[in-house]
Design goal:
Number of helices: 11
CATH superfamily of the largest domain: Jelly Rolls
Strand content: 25-35%
Oligomer: single chain
Largest sheet: 8 strands, antiparallel
Helix content: 10-25%
Structural class: alpha+beta
CATH class of the largest domain: Mainly Beta
Order of helices and strands: EHEHHHEEHEEHHEEEEEHHHEEEEEEEEH
Radius of gyration: 20 Å
CATH topology of the largest domain: Jelly Rolls
Number of strands: 19
Distance between the termini: 36 Å
Length: 352
Amino acid sequence: MSAHLEPVGLPANQPPQFYRGGDAIAALRGASTSDTKFGPEDWVASATTMFGQETHGLTKLPSGVWLRDAVRENPVAWLGAKHVEAMGDSTGLLVKLLDAGQRLPVHFHPTDAFARRHFDSHFGKTEAWIVVGTYGDDPRVYPGFKETVSKQTVAEWTREQDAPSMLGALNSIPVTAGDTVYIPAGLPHAIGEGVFVVELQQPTDFSLTLEWRDFLANPEKGHLGLGFDTAIETLDTTGWDDERLTSIVKHTGSDSSSTVDLLADGSDAFFRADRLRPNATELSTTLSLDPSFAVLVVMEGTGVLRTEHGGEYTLNKGETYVVPHDAGQSTVEGDLSLIRCRPPVPERRSQA
């Protein structure tokens, strides 16, 4: 009988990006900010490549094997039988540490249906941001248009590269650590300078960038070869007023529970995320974790992860782990705060 798979600690994995940032990632991981490897995105436990690339973006396990290939060779052990039945050998998840050292451009992502039609992909790119730190004078995010606009207006802004009009049409929300924002596919958005997030998303790299000038080399990189008229078909141009925004924005920073569900209702058809603090109360607690493929990001402190097969792993601030389903029922204890990211609930994904 073969040995059970166990959690694996992962080094940083930072493919080159077009924007500035990375100091917050380096600080979390305890690395020197002068290390040029620390770019603005750290793709954690990634089985996803950057758009149009062969291997950029993929996580290499300490064994030297691409995580993607390891999962493909043994999908049930890595992902669980129900997951494989619903999603095949895809992890169904991409997790990033993202440090916006400058404002990101106004962009959006395709729905599953649009991605199937135009990219031959089972997944579009719904995503969510867990704000884990901020810096600078005015950290904020920009989710959705404040009022409904026509696709013709958006097309004109894009042709003219009218960045002030694009940004001005979006909601502008100040954020602090503990805030989370769920970004359904199609929703226009941007992340402002000084916002550090753990980002969960579907496992693709489809970004349709309306505001490409000063960010991308050419407009083709903005519409990914589709043309903006086609790309804008999947753009949500409806208005998101304050009441509607409450369905995607949560404020969890003041929640002192040992386990906090971080994301908006309904997002579990795409991914799940919990903040775990075993010592949240005066009484030390051991938290039990059901078997699941998971990505762990340790934000603060030190603790211990134990698997049902006898594995024991010390968790320290800045470390990231990939946990296979085969690790079984696990526990975590200690004076630490970590974010546990998981793929969608399989039954929910099969209905999505």
